[in-house]
Amino acid sequence: MTIKLLAIGKTDSKELQKLISMYEQRLGHYVKFELEIIPDLKNTKNLSAEQQKIKEGELIFKSLANTDILVLLDENGKQYSSLEFSSYLQKKMNSGLKQLVFLIGGPYGFSEEIYRKASGKISLSKMTFSHQMVRLFFVEQLYRAFTILRNEPYHHQ
């Protein structure tokens, strides 16, 4: 199974990008992992929030295969402990699916079409984080989940 993290817009902070890259490398020991960045929309001043979500949604659909299982990283999603998230991933891997895609949306969230395509929503916290920070938190949690599944000493319970 491949796990893909799909995100809108590049990470501006070199420090954050360095940390994200570190976890990307670590994940390579456990699973095929891809981070795909969809470029920010240009000339958004004349677009409403809804129009921007629709345009971003069109770009997102171009990055998805018909067989992909899409999970949104959404503030209204289900919250998991690290142990629960590792169990969730194990179930997905056991199901035989080809690619599991986690999506970080743009500044206004997701279009209705994206919500309809998604098979689930996960929230990392009740707090709001920058989308760039969410990338780091998510790849770290993915790495943590795989160390839990392998009974490695990274996670302390």
What would your notes on this structure say?
The chain has 5 helices and 5 strands, in the order βαβαβαβαβα. The longest helix has 19 residues, at 131-149. The relative contact order is 0.24. Strand 3, helix 3 and strand 4 form a beta-alpha-beta unit. The mean pLDDT is 95. With 157 residues, it is α/β, with parallel strands linked by helices. It has a single domain (2-39, 52-148), classed as Alpha/beta knot. It is globular and about 50 Å long. The chain has a 5-stranded parallel β-sheet with strand order 2-1-4-3-5. Helix content is 42%, strand content 22%. Specifically methylates the pseudouridine at position 1915 (m3Psi1915) in 23S rRNA. It is found in: Cytoplasm.
Widest beta sheet: strand line-up: 2-1-4-3-5
Report the average pLDDT across residues: 95
Termini separation comes to: 27 Å
Count of beta strands? 5
The backbone outline, from C-alpha atoms, is: globular
Number of helices: 5
Reading off the top of the CATH hierarchy, the class is best stated as: Alpha Beta
CATH fold-type name: Alpha/beta knot
How many separate domains? 1
Approximate strand percentage: 15-25%
Structural class based on helices, strands and sheet pairing: alpha/beta
